[in-house]
Each structure stands twice: as structure tokens, then as C-alpha cells.
From TrEMBL:
Alphabetically ordered keywords of this record: Oxidoreductase
Species, as recorded: Pseudomonas carnis
PANTHER family with a match to the protein in the record: NAD P H OXIDOREDUCTASE-RELATED (PTHR10204), NAD(P)H DEHYDROGENASE [QUINONE] 1 ISOFORM 1 (PTHR10204:SF34)
Family: Belongs to the NAD(P)H dehydrogenase (quinone) family.
Protein name in the entry: NAD(P)H-dependent oxidoreductase
Domain Flavodoxin-like fold per the UniProt entry, residue ranges: 1-206
Gene3D superfamilies reported in the protein's UniProt record: 3.40.50.360
Length: 255
């Protein structure tokens, strides 16, 4: 199995970078292939913009989706995007490591999706969701937060961390991935000293062991449920008897 491990953290000595390396070591130890894609390390340009495209379809007005599709068909995508897309198509699984900043992912990760999930190549109107280009592949988000597990719970002061990651999970599902339940690690804080630092180190070491053990049982990792095409009307509205898996896609109660 080929695994692509994405890392979106600017510090090479961060806990996220450490986890990404552990992901790589675990997969290699299991006899699989693993590639680490370090977005900050590559100085990936996260802004989608006209200057990325060398053979503009419309030089007067920049339409990102149209230029992506146009350059996909011309086989003239920006070099870094072309390489990343190739890695996605070659991979059987994708694991993305990132810190939970301002209740979401770092901008570089969102920009990677903006540029790398190429319209016309990775998705189009008849190639989405369960029919997406990445169907048959699994994707996992591994994220760290400074707040405690209690604060990041549905009734916590900072809100439901898993729910806030739903847009990222849905984006992966949109291009066809089977999205696995995210692995969340809380209480990852800097600036600690003495006993607090030692306690955090011990806790994080244990979480790394638990994470690697779960990776070894990859086939048993539960998936995030999403509605399928048959759950919606032709007008793209949830059918009355369709199941609900998220507050983002739900039935509207009538007065």
C-alpha cells in the first residue's frame, strides 16, 4: 500500500512533525510505501492566482475553476500542483497532520486544497462524492489542539473540534475519499516547564503509542458517514426519509 503523509506545520521540531515522522515509520515498518509531503518545507504557495497559469484561457478575467480545467486538459498545470496531484493518484491512503489554529486548519492546508483539488481533474459535476476520482482511497486527519479535551467537546468552552473539522472532511469526501474518523490530540502546549513539561511529555508519548497502534489496525479504523447521492432530490435537497449524519446537512423542521 502507498501512503501519502501530508504535514502542515511551519516548525520542523513540532509535535505535528514528530507525529508525521511516526506515521512514516509505522507504515514503512508494516512493509508499505510512505511519502511525506511537507507543505511548509516545500514553501508551497497557498494562494490560487493567475500567475500560476502559463496558457491562460482568458487573459482578461481570472476564473480559477476554468483555468484549472483548461490547464489540466493541456497538461500544463503548475509544476508543484502537477506533482502533488500525481502523489494523490498514486496513493492508496492519505494522512494529513496539522495544528488546529483559530478553530480550523492552517491557511496553507486550505490553499493546498484550493490549488491541488483541480477542477476537471480531481472533480467535476459527474465525478464527486462516492463517484469522485479518489474513490477507493482512505483519508485521515490528525490534528492537535492546545485546549483540553473537555474544552473541545460538544459542550466545551471552545466548541466541538470534530464538528469544526467537518468542512475539511467533507472536502476530502467531495473528491471521493473514504474519510476516517479524525485522530485528535488535545493539550499540546508550548512554554511549559518542570513538572508540567514532564507530564505533557509523558501524556503525548502515550498518545503517540496509541496512534501507532491504531495505524497498525488501519482496516478497523471507523469511517465518517456522509449522505449519498440517492439521499437527495433532483434539486439537491435532502429527502424527507434520508438519514442525517451532521448538523451541516440536516432536515429543516416545518412550523
Amino acid at each position: 500500500m502507498r501512503v501519502l503523509i501530508g504535514l502542515a506545520h511551519p516548525e520542523k521540531q513540532s509535535f505535528n512533525a514528530h507525529l508525521a515522522e511516526k506515521s512514516c515509520q509505522t507504515w514503512l515498518g508494516l512493509g508499505h510505501e510512505a511519502t511525506v509531503l511537507d507543505l511548509y518545507g516545500e514553501d508551497f504557495e497557498s494562494r490560487e492566482a493567475s500567475w500560476h497559469y502559463s496558457a491562460r484561457k482568458d487573459s482578461d478575467r481570472f476564473d480559477p475553476m476554468q483555468e484549472q480545467r483548461h490547464h489540466w486538459h493541456l497538461k500544463k498545470l503548475p509544476a508543484e500542483v502537477e506533482r502533488h496531484v500525481s502523489l494523490l493518484f498514486k496513493a492508496d491512503a492519505v494522512i494529513i497532520h496539522f495544528p488546529f489554529w483559530w478553530f480550523g486548519a492552517p491557511a496553507i492546508l486550505k490553499g493546498w486544497m484550493d490549488r491541488g483539488f483541480v477542477y476537471g481533474g480531481l472533480y467535476k459535476s459527474d465525478m464527486r462524492h462516492e463517484n469522485g476520482s479518489m474513490r477507493g482511497k482512505k483519508a485521515l486527519l490528525v490534528s492537535t489542539a492546545g485546549s483540553s479535551m473537555q474544552a473541545c467537546s460538544p459542550n466545551g468552552r471552545d466548541g466541538d473540534m470534530r464538528l469544526m473539522l467537518w468542512p475539511l472532511m467533507y472536502s476530502l469526501h467531495y473528491v471521493g475519499f473514504d474519510v476516517l474518523e479524525p485522530y485528535l490530540i488535545h493539550g499540546v502546549r508550548g512554554g511549559l516547564v518542570a513538572d508540567e513539561a514532564n507530564q505533557q511529555r509523558d501524556q503525548l508519548t502515550q498518545r503517540v503509542f496509541e496512534y501507532q497502534a491504531k495505524l497498525a489496525c488501519w482496516k478497523d479504523w471507523p469511517s465518517v458517514p456522509f449522505n449519498r447521492n440517492e439521499d437527495f432530490t433532483e434539486g439537491q435537497v435532502l429527502k424527507q426519509n434520508a438519514p442525517v449524519y451532521s448538523p451541516f446537512v440536516r432536515h429543516i423542521e416545518k412550523d
